[in-house]
Amino acid sequence: MSSTRQLAAILFTDIVGYSATMQEDEQRAINLVKHHRLVLEKTVADHEGDVIEYYGDGSLCIFTSITEALQCALSIQQQFQTEPKVPLRIGLHIGEVIYEDGKIMGDGVNIASRIQSLGLAGSILFSKETFDKIRNHPELKSVYLGRFLLKNIAEPMEVFALANDGLTIPEKKEIEGRIKDLTNKNLTGPQKWIIASALALVLILVAAFLLGAFRKQNKFTSTEKSIAVLPFENISNDSLQQYFSDGITEDIITQLSKIADLKVISRTSVMQYKDNRKNIKEIADELGVASILEGSVRKEGNKLRITAQLIDAQTDQHLWSETFDRDASEVFAIQSEVAQHIANALNVKLTTEEGKRIIEKATDNVEAYEDYLRAKQLPWAQRIEPLLNAIKKDSTFSLAWAELASAYSKIPWRNQSEKPYYVRKSLDAAMTAVALGPERSETHMILGDVLKISTLSPSLAIKELNKSIELNPNNAEGYVYLAFAQMELGKFAEAEKNLIKAKQLDPLSGIMHSGWLTYYRYSRNPDKYISYQNEMRRTNIADSIPGTKLMYHFLKDEYDSILYYNIPVYFSILKCIAYTRTGQTDQAKKIADSLENSSPYDHAFQTGVIYAWTGAKQKAIEKLNLAYRLYDFGLISIKVDKLFDPLRNEEGFKELLRKMGME
Fold first, then answer.
1. 3-184, what's its fold?
2. In the chain, domain spans
3. Lowest-confidence range among 101-115, 179-193, 222-236, 501-515?
4. What is the structure's pLDDT at 219?
5. Given CA atoms 494, 495, 497, 501 in this order, what sign does their dihedral have?
6. CATH code 3.40.140.100 for 366-537
7. Model pTM score
8. What whole-number distance in Å separates Cα of residue 550 and Cα of residue 575?
9. What digits encode the pLDDT tens for the residues 512-529?
10. CA 379-382-383 angle, 5° bins
11. If 0-12 CB within 10 Å is exposed, 13-18 middle and 19+ buried, where does residue 399 land?
């Protein structure tokens, strides 16, 4: 009896529901098998493989190349998506096979068969060994499904699914259910009872003698699935590579944030723990999370080493750790793998769509990616050049377009007449970002923000902001932007809910704090306004910044108190209003006329508000319409802000509200 051995890529196929189809319609079942074999034999031959054996409605094939095997599997499934459709599932593994007397066998064959049995119609599942061989092939997209104990296989297997368009990706819970079904298959009732009783007895004995050991196992102990990703340490010889390690941190946060079943603390809060000496439990308590991810990045030329370890914050036990030694071009694959491993370690529910979004690459051009990361470390005005360089290297880099849109919208301009130019540039870049990255939360968030800036209409922003949060349910900044738009429309109850969500996800965020202050201002709650400000600054009102004190007194109609503070009046609309409310209207008119004479365009908004409080309402409305044509963002609060109260009954003011979509 002679035998030979060789390493091979093993592919199993199986028609789902074939037995039931045979009972319902014998001829249709026969036609399915014939069509399956016809497509299989041609496609396997095209990819330099061999069909070794048919098993009724299934088959066993082998290939010398795992890439060809997966390309073949993908082609087969794509062909079966058109009529006559065949509900096929496919499983692949790399392993040693044994040829003996015309038969093929070996552990690799068994593993491929078990992996195939976990699939659904239209799915292609494969092992970690397979994934390691195709990770550098961007045309083959994959999703990590988890670790599973397969029947008659001693060690748990990591299973992945091909995630190209049109393929079915099973949910983890579906696979776990199928494993249970397979385990109990063909057992009689008494046999099941005996096995269950024996297992129960074993568990009782183990629990009695090894309880202490169980307590030391690295299992996630918290019921809440929440995580903070601490800033990855830059251990490169070049300290200038700090931007790269910060970028790794931010991108892992972004990938994890796409999972609705996981609470993820946002970047602005975790970055405050860079070089922090607090222990894991202290940080977790401050951020309100159950687990912490920490790690390091070393980049030397084109070589990249990333280490990551996931820690249960309550027990200080390591739940998962790994070191990735790769080329720098694989940085995006590493980020996706880390996210998938964390989801598995925390037993997080990962939907099919989330699995697909996690493996999306920002760009295939590492140089463009580095330009993008460098840009994000710079002031807004200095970001434009490196972002344009990134786009030159990869014109389809949607995140670079989104960041460029933000830069154009926030760049300081020399005078008001420059603003329309930058507004148009910002809107063009934001729309390009969404066109190139329609499934990215960031692109929709930026477009929502830019739409509001360019139209002064919060209602136009809300659709894009809701889409952004749908794509990334942990997008704290998106919740704040949405809350701002809702407040500006007078929808305070909805805004409050979104600010609460943002605070949970980003408790140390500056923009979130600004959102709460704005909420109390627009909803006319001066006591909450000042108490929140004092809480954030941990100081008394007397030591707060002048602008906060003035707004507090304005909301309380304490105009004498406003005049008490010695602030250059040209910079304070509120001080002019206080003059009008204390019988010193001429003082306010002088200031308004002085601003008008110095630059009627640059000060259109300020003079409009001051004229409103002096009683020159028609002149005020003319100035506010000019401010509207100049995209003055001060008008965004026109529907709710106390600044505009003197004009609310004026027809010209109501017409301006209608133009802005506020009425």
1. Alpha-Beta Plaits (3.30.70)
2. 3-184, 226-344, 366-537, 557-659
3. 179-193
4. 57
5. positive
6. no
7. 0.70
8. 8
9. 999 999 999 999 999 999
10. 85
11. buried
